[in-house]
Amino acid sequence: MIKAALSVLLVLVAVSSAKYIPKSGKRIPQTLSRGWGDQLIWAQTYEEALYWARLRNKPLMVLFHLEDCPHSLEFKKLVSEDNGIQRTLDEDFIVLNLMYETTDKHLSPDGQYVPRVIFVDPTMTVRADIIGRYSNRMYAYEPVDLKLFKSNIEKAKKLLKSEL
Amino acid sequence: MIKAALSVLLVLVAVSSAKYIPKSGKRIPQTLSRGWGDQLIWAQTYEEALYWARLRNKPLMVLFHLEDCPHSLEFKKLVSEDNGIQRTLDEDFIVLNLMYETTDKHLSPDGQYVPRVIFVDPTMTVRADIIGRYSNRMYAYEPVDLKLFKSNIEKAKKLLKSEL
């Protein structure tokens, strides 16, 4: 009898302390990195990123992508697995990745497409001089452009330091 | 000799495949939930949240908080551990939590403070009629206000459905 009561009590405790699980099943919490570098400290919003860029006097890299875009996914794999890129972004940049456009038109100087990488300097100016190799999508990078992307990161890092 | 060569090779392979780790040590990737409910699907930005609210025809709850604010932390614990709140937010709302203010002044109708909860209906209107009990901080909730917060969630859910 006491045993039975104890069992009921245990079940009640277990039920009341059970965490909410959606009907569709348990989900893996979404990270701010979204796979672009789990060890980097990603800003959540453009406002937050600009705040940190000014405060830390660091350039900001804004990366537009989509999770169902194969070009974005290929580029993400290269960027996230390149330790050199990851280290430079971590130590010298403020980073933000976005899947939805902002209301700030400066972040889409030649249209809204993905993947698209915009460098913003700590004075909050979008750098129109740090671009890829495609004249119709100036801020786009293909997987073959990884070397150019790396040199643009270095350009953003050095140019900004020497100018400011 | 062969053994030594193999060892060197193994070390080289290990080094080249090692993932980037910051000098300050490995970090735990930040989640979009930030502790407010790991099983909920959180929007990243206000633009994204509005997009989903319109598309799904659901009310949006925007929660402003700070990680070093004891009032935010107390309220977070209550909200994240209340399965009823979690289920309703998951099934009937679009949710967004922010630590930095947006440029949209409608989200700070009576100032910028935390914790602050703003309900926005699917027509993108901030609901000035769903508020807490403090006249000088109308959208603030204290831990003792959990019951009022729950009834406001129900109000947002029902009112919006019947109106639209």
Describe the strand arrangement of the main beta sheet of chain A, using strand numbers.
Answer: 2-1-3
Stretches of chain A where pLDDT is under 50 for at least 5 consecutive residues are none
Report the β-strand fraction of chain A as a percent range.
5-15%
Most extensive chain contact?
A: A-B, 34 and 34 residues
- The number of strands of chain A is 3
Identify the quaternary structure here: homodimer
How many helices of chain A? The count is 5
What is this entry, summarized?
The structure is a homodimer of 164-residue chains. Chain A is 40% helix and 9% strand.
Entry keywords:
homodimer, 164 residues, mainly alpha, three-stranded mixed beta sheet, elongated
What's the structural blueprint in terms of helices and strands?
Two copies of one chain form a homodimer.
Chain A: H1 2-16, H2 46-56, E1 60-64, H3 70-81, H4 83-92, E2 94-98, E3 116-120, H5 146-163
Helix pairs in contact in A: 4-5
